[in-house]
């Protein structure tokens, strides 16, 4: 029989990024948290954490975290169906992973009514759309947005739509670096702006121009900061059309390849045994996301 106090300690350490914060969340001493983790490992006969900074779940720990996530959701359903078993009227906290561009554009409009109606607090973890499944595999989140269709074991995926990315820069930047249009020599030596190490959109665009190998780029892990850097003339980059309609109309940004866009599919991944809460959020996203994503095609 699993001891859920021990599992709660494991989940808190991973979710909070350390023993000290986990202790504060659970109202225990750091020593008590450490003892619970050691007891869990002794009963399991295998380590559940890699003592790094922050601590990382082992393969066994990930299996347990996946279980904890699903149990929390099922307990929420039980409290809803049998309110007499609990007097706790607090809001439910749900951990999901999504890409920063969705968070900066359509996501809030899609989930806000549902969060209020279902009394849910979202704990949103940012991951590039190409790698969001990492969080689900590690047991840290109950659902994620990513560009990959194939779900992890025990999960389902649903295509919500596509985000259309445009290659853009400021007018001054284009005049300085691309006065005669795009060319292989230009793109290799002209600085781009890339969101992070997992962001491959600019790399794909460059390859489509026939350029192989490395090119120069700034790193900017912020959707809003990314656009500001482009408007300031620091580099060129790939941005969702949804995010820069006003900047294009006002002339603060211009397309490097007018009429061209890079579609990126967005799949919603969620645990099959995630209960009514995840099913409800999935239905809400399926209903609202396509209309919110569609305007990006027209820019």
UniProtKB/TrEMBL annotation:
The keyword Endoplasmic reticulum does not apply. The keyword RNA-binding does not apply. Residues 2-58 form the HTH lysR-type domain. One of its GO terms (molecular function) is DNA-binding transcription factor activity. PROSITE patterns: HTH_LYSR. Keywords: DNA-binding, Transcription, Transcription regulation. Belongs to the LysR transcriptional regulatory family. NCBIfam families: argP, PRK03635.1, PRK13348.1. This is LysR family transcriptional regulator, chromosome initiation inhibitor. It comes from Halopseudomonas aestusnigri.
């Amino acid at each position: 029989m699993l001891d859920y106090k021990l599992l709660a300690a494991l989940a808190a350490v991973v979710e909070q990024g350390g023993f000290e914060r986990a202790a504060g969340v659970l109202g225990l001493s750091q020593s008590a948290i450490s003892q619970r983790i050691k007891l869990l490992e002794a009963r399991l006969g295998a380590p559940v954490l890699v003592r790094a900074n922050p601590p990382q779940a082992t393969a066994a720990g990930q299996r347990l975290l996946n279980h904890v996530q699903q149990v929390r959701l099922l307990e929420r359903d039980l409290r809803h169906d049998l309110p007499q078993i609990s007097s706790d009227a607090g809001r439910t906290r749900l951990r999901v992973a999504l890409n920063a561009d969705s968070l900066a554009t359509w996501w809030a409009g899609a989930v806000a009514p549902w969060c209020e109606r279902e009394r849910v607090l979202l704990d949103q973890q940012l991951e590039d759309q190409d790698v969001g499944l990492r969080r689900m595999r590690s047991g840290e989140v109950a659902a994620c947005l990513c560009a990959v269709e194939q779900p992890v074991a025990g999960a389902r995926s649903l295509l919500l739509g596509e985000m259309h990315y445009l290659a853009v820069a400021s007018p001054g930047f284009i005049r300085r670096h691309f006065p005669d249009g795009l060319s292989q020599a230009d793109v290799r030596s002209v600085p781009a702006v890339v969101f992070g190490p997992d962001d491959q959109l600019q790399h794909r665009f460059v390859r489509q121009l026939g350029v192989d190998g490395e090119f120069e780029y700034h790193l900017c892990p912020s959707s809003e900061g990314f656009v500001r850097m482009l408007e300031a003339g620091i580099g060129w980059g790939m941005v969702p059309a949804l995010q820069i309609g006003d900047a294009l109309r006002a002339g603060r940004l211009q397309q490097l390849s007018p009429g061209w866009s890079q579609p990126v599919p967005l799949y919603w991944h969620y645990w099959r045994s995630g209960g009514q809460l995840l099913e409800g959020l999935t239905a809400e996203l399926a209903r609202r996301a396509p209309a919110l994503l569609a305007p990006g095609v027209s820019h």
